[in-house]
Specification:
Layout lengths: L7 H7 L3 E5 H15 L3 E4 L2 H6 L1 H14 L5 E3 L12 H18 L6 E4 L5 H4 L3 H21 L3 E5 L9 H8 L5 E5 H6 L5 H8 L3 E6 L19 H9 L7 E4 L7 H11 L6
Parallel strand pairs: 1-2, 1-8, 2-3, 3-4, 4-5, 5-6, 6-7, 7-8
Helix pairs in contact: 2-4, 5-7, 7-8
Length: 274
């Protein structure tokens, strides 16, 4: 991690947040740098990792993370999956893949696991009721299994133009302990709804935040402050709540972008740090 020289405040902030990290990169040596710098990972478990890394390598990686004193979270696969699919074969593959990801994530003892509900207006608006019912049937047993494993399951916005399609899904699943992961970058890149309207509707379910930036219209995963996401508005809203225990993850797509994001987040962070 070239150029990494965090200040005392930034080091304290690193103890409070996580940074996204694919399991493959962790296994290739990134984990040693994260342990040295005390950077807690959100471990990406995509389909290739689940199929090709093998249980032995993943379990060894889990032991290194534990030995390093890091507190991970996990991110499940999402490409090509459809938890609300109308095609029974696609749905079967999706459910098996999501379930396997959860069982694999459990080796790392993550605080939470992030999944995508995969609502796309162009595909699902005309059959929303069916999508919703099928999605609930997908997530409910997975949420119950996650609770058995001591893992919080959270659902992240991606291509939704606004929060409305997710509100009934989260309301139905909240009794199972499912929370909302607000990806602020996605809300600008793909959405047509102001950031605060997302929070006003889905705030009661908010459990986690994914932080990255973009200019709008593209999911660039830039450092905080390099795009047009309303981060001051976000943190003003958060500071006005009677809690501050949300799980926060930085999601840069380049390793060198961690540090400018951390510096920007340090200036925005409204709560006391040790």
């Amino acid at each position: 991690m070239q150029g990494s020289n965090p200040t005392t405040r930034q080091r304290a902030l690193l103890e409070r947040i996580r940074v996204n990290a694919p399991a493959r990169m962790l296994d290739e040596g990134l984990i040693d740098r994260l342990v040295r710098l005390r950077v807690h990972p959100e471990i990406g478990l995509d389909a290739r990792i689940l199929d090709k890394m093998g249980g032995g390598r993943l379990k060894r990686l889990a032991r290194k993370i534990e030995a390093g004193g890091l507190r991970p979270s996990a991110h499940g696969p999402f490409f090509d999956l459809c938890p609300g699919a109308s095609d029974p074969r696609i749905l079967d593959v999706t459910r098996k893949r999501l379930g396997r990801a959860l069982e694999t994530a459990a080796w790392f003892e993550p605080a939470h696991i992030v999944y995508h509900p995969d609502y796309e207006e162009i595909r699902h608006a005309g059959r929303y009721s069916e999508w919703l019912e099928t999605s609930i049937e997908t997530w409910r047993p997975l949420a119950r299994r996650a609770r058995e494993l001591g893992i919080l399951l959270v659902l992240e916005n991606t291509y939704e133009s606004g929060p409305d399609p997710l509100a009934p899904l989260l309301a139905e699943l909240a009794p199972e302990g499912v929370g909302f992961c607000f990806d602020v970058g996605h809300s600008l890149a793909f959405g047509r709804t102001p950031l605060l309207e997302w929070l006003d509707l889905l705030g009661p379910y908010l459990s986690a935040l994914h932080l990255h930036d973009n200019p709008g219209g593209r999911d660039d995963h830039l450092p905080i402050g390099a795009g047009r996401v309303d981060f001051p508005g976000l943190f003003a809203w958060l500071a006005g709540r009677d809690r501050n225990d949300w799980a926060v993850t930085l999601e840069p797509h380049r390793e060198e972008d961690i540090w400018p994001s951390l510096a920007a987040l340090s200036g925005l962070w409204p709560w006391d740090l040790p």
